[in-house]
Automatic annotation (TrEMBL), chains A, B:
Membrane listed as a keyword: no
Protein name: LacI family transcriptional regulator
SMART domains in the record: HTH_LACI
Annotated InterPro entries: HTH_LacI, LacI/GalR-like_sensor, Lambda_DNA-bd_dom_sf, Peripla_BP_I
Organism: Actinoplanes awajinensis subsp. mycoplanecinus
Entry's Gene Ontology molecular function annotations: DNA-binding transcription factor activity; transcription cis-regulatory region binding
SUPFAM superfamilies xref list: lambda repressor-like DNA-binding domains, Periplasmic binding protein-like I
Length: 338, 338
DNA sequence: ATGAAAGCGCTAACAT
DNA sequence: ATGTTAGCGCTTTCAT
């Protein structure tokens, strides 16, 4: 908290003040081997007196920046805030600082710009980037990817149980008597069959389960950009169809909010079952009361950060963490009228 | 998108491949003066061929990192997402990259760590840091502060119209017949009279308006940490008091959500007027339908970023931007039963 | 218009 | 245990 005046103070200033070499100062600030208590004390005194703070740029150029980067596709998505919060907690208490990089447009750019020496390691949520490209990135810098169902060799993954979670939802809806169940999810780009994104897996699972239940001809899928109004519009369309669904399974809670909005706006609140995914704090709100799948977003973020720290400590074999999915049943999943 | 193999490629590699000096390459990538079209072409070809990306660390050490830092106290606060979104938009299309730094504990650390050479400029939302300290920070690096009502000389400010917004709310509630109006806001630390934070100003305004209306003895203020459950608990206490309020003015929408939750959970939805602040996307949701003040969060974030870019371009005299506040009346502000 | 050379502040051998 | 030295990759005078 000391107030620095004028030009910034460097390691040389500290060394001069303490009457030691710059290398000595460097060792002290890094807690490196071979520093006598006496020297440590003098150096620390000088650091305090001068208000010295090491330059990240200089450190990064030579070794590490002590910064961890978390790339996030949508800063406003409720699920992202869980991830950020979890990662923040996990990094607290380590010598590392977490920095978030909101992606604007293609994630390649954001990831590259993180890899350009700003951070020592990267956590990313980029369902669409090419696995080969990621393997290459992982060769240059430690990487942990969230929400990828592939099995990479050069980076770690943290993933939810999208099959289990979706199955739990469907079973629950069947038990409530629903047959005409529609699925509203993200755009084609992130839900293309086999592309391995969480939403693609949820969609596949929905289809599989419907087919298993002999309801293949009732499968109804709508894909929309994740904007509240578009989810509402899609819901309106679904409900206007000749045989409208009695239940709508939303890809995640934010989409579900749009679904609920449209249903409420047309005065039909409570008439159509709605489910979300991610169990964001909104879901538990009495006025929303949304049935959702808890996939432990905070825990996922925390695990990702922890795994990244492990890699920074030297681990090289890939690890994978799969979060559990637990259905939280609430009022939005009403019984089928039929 | 080219795939780099092995060791990272440096400016020297580019220079060698293009058959020019490193200085020449540097000039090309910075669009600096004195490069012949021919040379530019050869250099750019080499850059493309090699997939060269300048090291941020090296650039930062010598000049600028082309990174802008946005410090955020609470990543999950809905208002923050507006700010982030706005800043992101404003920075897009410039040569700068936005990085977010979530504060963990005292904001001084986060701000320092940003100033340690990671970024060329800082946008911060830190109501509590000492103005003198900020002035000093502003001397070392361009700074734009959000939500400070002071008039600094060494940095810019972006602030809302907290007086106008709060007055609008109060007037509205008076018109609905309310007299017993309580205010639920953030903890003492950020609402201490005269400390100049947005919430302190809103609180002061609330008190002033109540007093002006001759209702000084009905003033009722509750302060709570911004956690959903605590807002609920505070609401429960307010409603359990001998003369419970007929309206609750929440410091911002997230708090209002807690208030609404408690009221709904006790089956009294629609019986007590509730207002928020920030007009977050939730407020417009039919199931929430929360009267709130729109203070253009996105615009504030965008303005902050723009002002920071101006400073980077050389402006030194301080600027201030004050956003307008517009009351959005919705269903939650019910008429007083009295 | 182009290149040579001197650092920016730090870390990591390698001496001593 | 401590100090010396040589860069990390880039930008920036200053020559040419």
């Amino acid at each position: 908290m000391s107030i620095t005046k004028g030009r910034s103070v460097t390691i040389s200033d500290v060394a001069r003040t303490a009457g030691v070499s710059r290398a000595a100062v460097s060792k002290v600030i890094r807690n490196a081997y071979g520093v006598s208590p006496a020297m440590r004390e003098r150096v620390e005194a000088a650091i305090g007196e001068l208000g010295y703070r090491p330059s990240v740029a200089a450190r990064a150029l030579r070794g590490s920046s002590y910064r961890l980067g978390l790339e996030i596709p949508h800063v406003s998505a409720r699920f992202m805030t869980q991830i950020m919060e979890g990662a923040k907690q996990a990094v607290a208490g380590t010598p590392y600082q977490l920095v978030l990089a909101p992606a604007h447009g293609p994630e390649y750019d954001t990831l590259e710009s993180l890899a350009d020496g700003l951070v020592d390691g990267i956590i990313a949520i980029s369902p669409l980037v090419d696995p080969a490209w990621l393997e290459d990135l992982g060769r240059r810098i430690p990487v942990v990817m969230l929400g990828r169902h592939d099995h990479p060799t050069g980076y770690d993954t943290v993933v939810g149980d999208d099959i289990g979670g979706t199955r739990a939802i469907m079973t629950h809806l069947f038990e409530l008597g629903h047959r005409r169940i529609a699925h509203l999810t993200e755009p084609e780009a992130v839900t293309r069959p086999g592309c391995g994104t969480p939403h693609a897996v949820r969609l596949e699972t929905y289809r599989t389960v419907m087919t298993e239940a002999g309801l293949a001809d009732l499968i109804q899928v709508a894909r929309r950009e994740d904007v509240p109004d578009l989810a509402r519009a899609a819901t309106a369309e679904l409900l206007a169809s000749p045989e409208p669904p009695t239940a709508i399974v939303a890809g995640h809670d934010d989409i579900a909010m749009g679904v609920l909005a449209e249903i409420a706006a047309t005065g039909r609140h409570g008439e159509i079952a709605v489910t979300g995914y991610d169990n964001t704090d909104l879901a538990a709100h009495p006025l929303i009361d949304l049935t959702s799948v808890d996939q432990q977003g905070m825990e996922m973020g925390a695990q990702a950060a922890t795994m990244l720290l492990e890699r920074l400590q030297g681990r090289t074999e890939p690890r994978r963490y799969r979060a559990t999915a637990t259905l939280r049943i609430r009022g939005s999943s009403v019984r089928s009228p039929g």
